Amino acid sequence: MKRNKFLRLSVCFILALSLIISMGVVGVSGDTEWAEGEGACTAFYMGKDTTENGSYIWGRSEDISASYTKLFQVHEAEGHAPGDMYVSGDWDASFTTFTPMFTWPYPERTLRYILCSDSIYNERQGPEPYAEVGMNEKGVCLSSTVSLSRCKSQISALDPRVSRYNGGLAETD
């Protein structure tokens, strides 16, 4: 029992240390490269087998500013008709014209999930700000705005970065 507790505490310590260290790395998103420490969001996840009470723990750091308001939301499960599509794209500067750039068919039923998103007043957001972190009813967690900017070529080959203008997804997707 003491060994398991020590292992769990060690994992927590290592994750916390990695968050602190990562605050000083260069982050890259899309065509933008930020100076040291500005855009280096970091995420971590601990599954139910790594916590003493079987809880899931996940988190992320957002190193761009301490004044970015976050919204916690619950999105209920939904049913979709055959042919219903998720559509993503770009809004113009006045948010009046939407240009679709990516579509994907919805499944018959989507799962209930929780999410944390920016307020529309933080950045030049569209009418619906994108979620940064969330977990669905099956316990699947993600941090959706963390991109690898420096990694081994073997990792990059598994999940290459693709410009959204060449069929890739943006952080807003």
UniProtKB/TrEMBL annotation:
A Pfam family annotated for this UniProt entry: Peptidase_C69
GO terms of molecular function: cysteine-type exopeptidase activity; dipeptidase activity
An individual GO BP term: proteolysis
Name listed for the protein in its UniProt record: Uncharacterized protein
Record organism: marine sediment metagenome
